[in-house]
Amino acid sequence: MDFLGCCSWLCPGSGSMKSCTPDKQEHNTNSQAASSGPNPSPGSSNSCDDVHPLQKNCYRLVVLGSARVGKTSLVSRFLGGKFQESYTPTIEDFHRKLYRIRGEIHQLDILDTSGNHPFPAMRRLSFLTGDIFVITFSMDSRETFEEAIRLREQILETKLSAGAASSTGLTRKKTLPRVPMVLAGNKCDREMKTVTVDEAMAYCETQDSSCVFVETSAKRNLYVDEVFYELFVVANLPLEMAPNHHKRVSANFGSPCPLPPPMPSHHPKKYTLSVKRRLSDACGVVTPNVRRPSIRTDLMIMRTKTCNMGDNMSNPNSGALNWRRLEHEETLGC
Fold first, then answer.
1. Higher confidence at residue 25 or residue 287?
2. Of 327, 275, 312, nearest to 109 (Cα)?
């Protein structure tokens, strides 16, 4: 599948800009929401109304890397603090975590990808739909480190090409997009290492400020929190999303509302909570039995994000799709 061709077809140019902005009301609302941080991913559609996140508060995290480097183990540690000794090859896993932070709902979708790349077109689609990335390699395998570097270059190249295909007007100077990502050097507890910390850090220093390196060990639970904390820092996301900065809540089976109800506030508007109190009020829950968005939805996500990448150069007020309506139609089988 030629996704860049899809970008050109879905965003043909200024003469059909309405294909990227369905209606004027959505145009105005979403252009304000996209003023900072990564472009939004679709909001949740399987929970009650009071936990619907705003579009600006929805993000997709894509975890990439070679096979057997510990991608799934890092995700398991992040979501539930668990580690599984046995190895099961991953085809693709999808997770969703909801947060309540300072009175607002935030949604983080996590796509745990395969290290064998059985479907190259799907991998390119994950590049285009992802907002933030964790590229994992093993500190005892130089081949996986070199693959991590190739993955970063492929992500930047794919997003750049997609943005150029959907841009309008005169030819512009090619500028690499700013994509928040962490190079996670897993298995740092191993004695025999073929990749040094200095080498990995030196590579990141040659990149922009949105690329950082963190060594970690999912097995020993070493610096796993730092991997995601640093990712949220470079992505300009709320730091309460990091594992140790919010209260973990267990989802009740069958409950339409995964998050607990917000605590009533009796403080006057001028009252300001301390940082410690704000952190203690933040909570997060892993949504059980979440369904992965369909390929149709992902293609629509790709359409809006690639249109935004091109239109932001010529029209900073470009709009976005109504993801909640799109997922609702998908649920109804439309």
1. 287
2. 327
Q: Which residue has the higher pLDDT, 306 or 176?
A: 176
CA atoms of 279 and 101, how far apart (whole Å)? 8
Residue 174 CB: number of other CB atoms within 10 A?
Answer: 9
Cα(301)–Cα(299) distance, integer angstroms: 5
pLDDT, one tens digit per residue, over 28-75 is 444 444 344 565 565 544 445 456 788 889 999 999 999 999 999 999
* Cross-strand partners of 93: 112
Question: Quick one: CA dihedral 62, 66, 67, 68, positive or negative?
Answer: negative
Q: Where are the domains of the chain?
A: 39-161+174-251+275-292
The distance from CA 266 to its chain's CA centroid, rounded to whole angstroms, is 35
pLDDT at residue 126 tops 70 = yes
Distance CA 285, CA 235 (A): 21
Does domain 39-161+174-251+275-292 sit in CATH 3.40.190.10?
no
Name the nearest CA neighbour of 141 among 87, 192, 184, 205.
Answer: 192
Task: Report the alpha-carbon distance of residue 210 to residue 250 in Å, rounded.
Answer: 32
The token duo for 135 is: 């590229």
Strand ranges for the chain from DSSP E: 58-65, 92-101, 104-113, 132-138, 181-186, 211-215, 247-248, 283-286
Which tokens go with 195?
């990749």
DSSP string, 283-326: EEEEPTTPPPPPHHHHHHHHHHHHHHHHHHHH-TT-----HHHH
For residue 183 the two structure tokens come to 């190079």
Q: Are 95 and 79 in contact (CB under 8 A)?
A: yes
Length of the chain equals 334
Q: Would you tell me how many other CB atoms lie within 10 Å of the CB of residue 8? A: 16
Assign 306 to helix, strand or coil.
helix
